[in-house]
Specification:
- With 351 residues, the protein is mainly alpha-helical.
- 75% of the residues lie in helices and 0% in strands.
- It is built from 14 helices and no strands.
- Helix 3 packs parallel to helix 8, helix 5 packs antiparallel against helix 6 and helix 5 packs antiparallel against helix 11.
- The protein starts with a helix and ends in a 5-residue tail after the last helix.
């Protein structure tokens, strides 16, 4: 398999993944509670481009509304979040020098969960209206990232071990406070809302937030791609990097903050979606190697394809019901990750 990727080169692989992503989006547009044939999708797309009116203008028919107002925004959000979480997984694995790391390893998920729990059960962030849960989760995730950096720099400069320990400590604190709030809230509807949010969903996607989230993900991916040489040095360790004239301390903190920004916006838009930032970078690294110049763009496109396909499957596995995407990804990701670990460790299944 690795010979295949070496033969095509990173540009060829990226073009192949782009074609696959377009095909996956077109496939996902047609499936769901209402099945849309390809002709209807093309007709709705052509009519919108020809009309020159806003996509949310009234009177354009049910097919237009399904394609442009319901399915396409959530699929584009899936592209942005899949790419963002996959690249964040690559960065976190480089920062802590551990291929088992994911975007939530430094306690970001617990911070987001605490923010969402406080918003639902305590009314924190009520001024943001219907966005209160997402905004509170974003603030919680970013605040925990800052806290991890602060703790890791106490008594000396931060390193991979101190970042992990700081993340574990703050994660435990946030989990305890979340449980405390849930225990004393006595609000069954609120607890159900928090539980559903923790499962993740792309159903809240809309055209207003897409440009912001998509723009941040694209800029962050491009930024990390330009930092591929530093990321490669992180895999060698701080001592080796210093001998090559690079001090990784400032880079590590900057990368962590940018990653936290992406994860925060992903949590804001879709709740908690795990395993994307763990499995996708791990699989891509096994196929194309550890060079971040190739790893980052391929991981971004692979994560986008993976989440688009997963979102499509969530709408058809159970008839007339949408399965939370976090559940499906965990059901797929956990067994795949175990298989990859066993195959890599013991050589089962050949090369």
């Amino acid at each position: 398999m690795r010979n295949f990727f070496q033969k095509w080169g990173v540009l060829g692989v990226c073009l192949l993944l782009l074609l696959l992503l377009c095909a996956a989006i077109f496939w996902a547009l047609g499936i769901g509670t209402v099945h849309l044939p390809a002709e209807a999708i093309w007709s709705a797309a052509g009519a919108q481009f020809a009309s020159g009116t806003p996509v949310d203008a009234p009177g354009k028919g049910p097919v237009h509304d399904i394609v442009w107002l319901l399915r396409l925004p959530r699929l584009l959000l899936a592209v942005a979040i899949g790419a963002g979480l996959s690249v964040c997984g690559v960065i976190m694995q480089a920062i802590v020098k551990n291929p088992l790391a994911d975007p939530y390893i430094l306690g970001i998920s617990s911070g987001a969960s605490l923010g969402a729990t406080a918003a639902v059960l305590l009314g924190v962030g009520a001024a943001f209206g219907e966005n209160a849960v997402g905004v509170s989760a974003f603030v919680g995730a970013f605040a925990i990232s800052l806290g991890v950096l602060f703790i890791a720099n106490l008594g000396g400069r931060a390193n991979a071990v101190k970042l992990l320990l700081g993340g574990m400590a703050l994660s435990a604190v946030c989990s305890a406070f979340s449980s405390f709030i849930i225990y004393f809230a006595n609000n069954k509807d609120g607890i159900q809302t928090v539980t559903y949010w923790l499962m993740g969903s792309l159903a809240g996607a809309n055209w207003d937030t897409l440009p912001v989230i998509g723009g941040i993900v694209v800029l962050a991916v491009l930024f990390f791609w330009t930092q591929s040489r530093i990321l490669n040095l992180m895999l060698l360790g701080d001592e080796s990097a210093v001998t090559l004239g690079k001090d990784l301390h400032a880079y590590r903190q900057a990368y962590l903050l940018v990653s936290a920004l992406i994860v925060g916006f992903a949590v804001y838009a879709a709740g908690m979606i795990g395993f994307v930032g763990l499995v996708v970078p791990h699989v891509v690294r096994m196929l194309i190697g550890t060079d971040h110049k190739r790893l980052i763009p391929v991981a971004a496109l692979s994560g986008a394809v993976f989440l688009v396909v997963a979102d499509g499957l969530c709408r058809v596995i159970i008839p007339r019901t949408e399965l939370p995407i976090g559940i499906l990804i965990s059901m797929i990701g956990a067994p795949c990750f175990i298989y990859l670990m066993v195959k890599r460790t013991y050589g089962f299944g050949g090369n």
